[in-house]
Amino acid sequence: MVCSQCGRTVHDHDRFCMYCGHALTNNKTSVESRMKEDSHIEEIRDEKRSKRSAVNHVNLKHEAKTLFDHTTKSIGKFAGSEEVLNLNLKDMFSEVFKFHSRDESEEIFIAGTKKTTPLLEEVSEEWGKPWLFSRVFVAFAITFLALWILSSTFENELAIPGLIFIGALTVPLTGLIFFFESNAFKNMSLFEVLKMFFVGGVISLISTMILYHFVTFSKDYYDYGAMTVFDALMVGLVEEMGKALIIIYFVNKNKTYKILNGLLIGGAIGAGFAMFESAGYILTFSLNYDESIINLVFLRAWTAIGTHLVWSAIIGAAIVIAKEHNNFGFRNAVDKRFLFFFLSSVILHSFWDTSITFFGSDNAKFILLSVTAWLLIFILMKAGLKQVNILQEEARQMKEI
Could you list the mean pLDDT of each consecutive 10-residue stretch along the chain, which spans 401 residues? Predict the structure, then answer.
């Protein structure tokens, strides 16, 4: 050891320097302190190196799947299904690009009558493979194209109303046929579904307009048409509540307790609402703001995939889940299962209407919100298919008694 005062070498056990008399205790303590500090710093460095090594070896695909499974399982609990969402979209839509005969199409369209509704034990709990919706889309797309040629090439103004109507109708009705095909119980006729689509859709607009009289918006909205976050939240709440009231009526009227039926009924009301609203927007903006009808049609068409159609379908399923075998009443409106999915639709709708963008793009926001909404739809479909098994098991037990 070296004396810090005179620099001469002394013994480690000496307390004072034999040359200058300087106390060596502090020096020794300082050396030990520095040694401990160096050791601590080295430990921190080792820990950081270990963390960096762990990060470099993380399997992002596995972590993402784990997060997805955990999230879908947690959400599924509100729908009565604690299973992870194992969804194979490639398999689900595998029938879309295959040839199907006219008889197969007609067999789907005649479902839901007394003679064509399958017995409960005949209902499949496997994921359906819908395909007819794609043919409906193609048929309407060809019709729209023909009307566009009439209006643009031949400058026939009489084709414009048809252009607006078919443009507003195509995607919502295509989505509705998808829900119709996905109803594993096949217990609702196309006539009943279309009745809810047209009549329920327009009545839900009326109920929404009535509810709008009970809310106020910001001065910016009234003066400039610019929505604040609060304004968007109010729009989402009012419109989803307006549609929910009509969905509740049709759910109670049909006395259904099946989740897949709830998705179909909600989807029918939402699709009708979307069609009438889109037609109104296209006409108004084209006349008052000199916007291109074609651009407006395409914007309203592709965004319709993730708006009223799916928001209302989510609410329809939530109503059925909360009410179970009874009619939906006030007590069900405060059921946490209903509130979770209802408020999810309200929040999705509100974010859609805000000026907030993702990565500076409205389209990116629309796509992300659409994907989120459809994720909830597929979680509810999973719960609906699990319910098939539960109902079949209950029926078997009743027969044994």
Answer: 70 68 58 59 72 63 81 89 84 95 96 94 94 98 96 92 96 98 97 98 98 91 82 97 98 96 98 97 85 89 97 98 94 96 98 91 96 97 95 87 68
First to last CA, the chain: 93
Residue 72: how many CB atoms within 10 A of its CB? 20
Burial class (CB in 10 A: 0-12, 13-18, 19+), 384: buried
Instruction: Tally Cβ neighbours within 10 Å of residue 357.
Output: 12
What does the alpha-carbon distance between residue 35 and residue 31 come to, in Å, rounded to a whole number?
A: 6
Residue 358 placed within a domain: yes
Q: How many domains does the chain have?
A: 1
> Is 255 within a domain?
yes
pTM equals: 0.85
Closest CA to 140 of 100, 181, 175, 91: 175
Nearest C-alpha neighbor of 354 from the set 251, 221, 238: 221
